[in-house]
Design a protein that fits this description.
alpha/beta; nine-stranded mixed sheet; Aminopeptidase; Aminopeptidase i, Domain 2; aminopeptidase; 2 domains
């Protein structure tokens, strides 16, 4: 199936998502994977410490595990409104502690912290690799290296039911400090994780100064289901949105919008832990980038505020599809179907930023793309999660809509989405970034 004028097909979108997931075991790798796609489409990487060119064009920047990309090709001036799609690059996982080396009962283990809110049991009995970033001492000062280990070096082994009969009646109960330390070798000495990392990045052990190291499941993302209509894979929350947003931007810059806008995507790190960091949605990353975009167009603060007043932000994160085995956990009037199209996420207590105007903007984009639009509301008696939407809306004062793609097993090591949904997702975002319908909303 094909959606939108840019020709997003189910097969290309789903297979491309699998490739993107497999190439992106950490937020740092996710940014580099997106950068590869952007550079192939003519985008130029900028550094925040440099002066930015005033020539209209396609640009992006990376701040550690976050990426912002934009095009000024169709801007008519410094007050041209912005269309921003936000997403995030991080996912719940196990992260290696600064002093991780442990030895218990003849086993070598690594101490881990729990990042975000994973389904802990989904990390049990899996072949796990390592990835992330290492900071080292170099001849010219501090250096950073990305690394990934795709050998099955780690495993968190589950206790056999013979040794805990209650697990069959009371369910699995895990103490995260005691039961989730992965083992990676045999021996009574605790091992040396620092030396292991040094070998991976090719430096002396004493030159390893720190790391942002995390585990990843080694089972590749792949199409599943009788008719291959589903995608099973790790980190789809929220790399599925990051991938769709990147493809949408690449498609949008090739279109002359009826309503001149500056299209932007912002892929943030640290959403799963609150976004309050140097590169999260609550940081200076998006506000300063938008201001500098306006400056490159010859504007100043007044022009920035005028541009923002006419702008719209779409905050993308995954949405809960109605679970066939737990239908009672969902709001009965708002069933979310897999491969049923993008999902508007609505919460009256503003856990999502969507209001009537923001919803209308997104529905117009779906109409333009020729895709259906679903509406998600959490059950009234259940708490609601949140996204980068309310944060970016509050910091910018810009009308914001929260949306997502249907997902099962959210925050599991392996999540499930729809193959056709990925094509519809990208098509709707491309139309949002390059609107053909002039609106006075």
């Amino acid at each position: 199936m094909t959606f939108g004028s840019s020709g997003f097909t189910t097969d290309d979108s789903a297979d491309g998502l699998c490739a993107y997931l497999n190439a992106s075991p950490s937020p740092f790798h996710a940014c580099e994977s997106a950068a590869t796609l952007l550079e192939a489409a003519g985008f130029t990487r900028l550094r925040e410490v440099d002066a930015w060119p005033t020539v209209r064009g396609r640009y992006y920047l990376i701040r550690a595990g976050s990426l912002v990309a934009w095009s000024t090709e169709h801007a008519t001036g410094a007050t041209t409104p912005l269309r921003v799609v936000g997403a995030h690059t991080d996912s719940p996982n196990l992260r290696i502690k600064p002093r991780p080396d442990l030895a218990r009962a003849g086993w070598q283990l690594l101490g881990v912290e729990i990042y975000g809110g994973p389904l802990d049991n989904s990390w049990l009995d899996r072949d796990l690799g390592l990835s992330g970033r290492v900071a080292t001492r170099g001849a010219d000062g501090l250096q950073t290296h990305l690394f990934r280990v795709d050998d099955p070096v780690l495993r968190v082994s589950q206790l056999a039911p013979h040794l805990d009969r209650s697990v069959r009646t009371d369910g699995l109960k895990l103490n995260e400090q005691q039961h989730l330390a992965p083992h990676w070798g045999l021996g009574n000495d605790p091992g040396d994780f620092r030396a292991y990392l040094a070998g991976e990045v090719g430096v002396r052990t004493e030159d390893v100064l720190g790391w942002d190291a995390m585990t990843h499941d080694l089972t590749p993302a792949r199409r599943t289901g009788r008719d291959r209509e589903l995608v099973a894979g790790a980190r789809q929350d929220n790399l599925a949105t990051s991938y769709a947003a990147t493809r949408a931007l690449i498609a949008a810059v090739e279109v002359e919008p009826v309503q001149p806008v500056t299209p932007v995507i912002a892929l943030f790190d640290h959403e799963e832990v609150g976004s309050v960091s140097d590169r999260g949605a609550a940081s200076s990353l998006l506000p300063t980038t938008l201001e500098r975009i306006v400056i490159t167009l010859g504007g100043g603060r007044e022009d920035l505020h005028r541009a923002l007043a006419g702008s719209v932000i779409a905050s993308g994160d995954m949405a809960h599809a109605t679970h066939p085995n737990y239908a009672e956990r969902h709001e009965p009037q708002h069933t979310i179907a897999m491969n049923g199209g993008p999902v508007l996420k609505i919460n009256t207590n503003l856990r999502y930023a969507t209001d009537a105007v923001g919803a209308a903007h997104f529905q117009l984009a779906c109409d333009q793309a020729g895709v259906p639009c679903q509406e998600f509301v959490v059950r009234t008696d259940l708490p609601c999660g949140s996204t980068v939407g309310p944060i970016t809306s509050a910091l910018s004062g810009v009308t914001t809509v929260d949306f997502g793609a249907p997902t099962l097993s959210m925050h599991s090591t392996r999540e499930l989405t729809g193959a056709t949904d990925q094509a519809m997702y990208a098509a709707a975002l491309a139309c949002f970034l390059a609107p053909s319908l002039v609106s006075s909303l």
